[in-house]
Design brief:
With about 110 residues, the protein is α+β, with helices and mostly antiparallel strands. It contains four helices and three strands, in the order αβααββα.
């Protein structure tokens, strides 16, 4: 399950980075709003790893006199996001019941 949660976080990051520039503090808040409890010590290495993997590109900005690293999805990141969305849709279609009463174990 841990790997599934890690993949969900990465897809969430890609989703937002595909729509607009993101930064770590904002992404941390966004993930928390969706129930993810991710420390900066986990999130920032994840963003750096995604950049090393070619899924994100970053640049340095100065906001309010402070430096901030801003991320955006690359073409490879967009491809990974599309693949992830297809996988989630397929998984959901198979494992989620179509109606609340549908339970094969009852």
């Amino acid at each position: 399950m841990r790997e599934l949660m890690r993949a969900a976080v990465r897809l969430h990051v890609l989703h937002h980075a595909a729509e607009e520039d993101i930064h770590g503090a904002w992404m941390s808040e966004e993930l928390a709003n969706h129930g993810y409890s991710i420390s900066p010590g986990t999130l920032y290495p994840t963003l750096h790893r995604m950049e090393q993997d070619g899924l994100l590109v970053s640049r340095q900005e100065v906001v309010g006199g402070r430096p901030r690293r801003v991320y955006r999805a690359t073409t490879a990141g967009l491809d990974a996001l599309a693949e992830g969305r297809r996988s989630i849709a397929e998984l959901a279609a198979e494992v989620l019941p179509t109606s609340p009463k549908e339970n094969p174990h009852e």
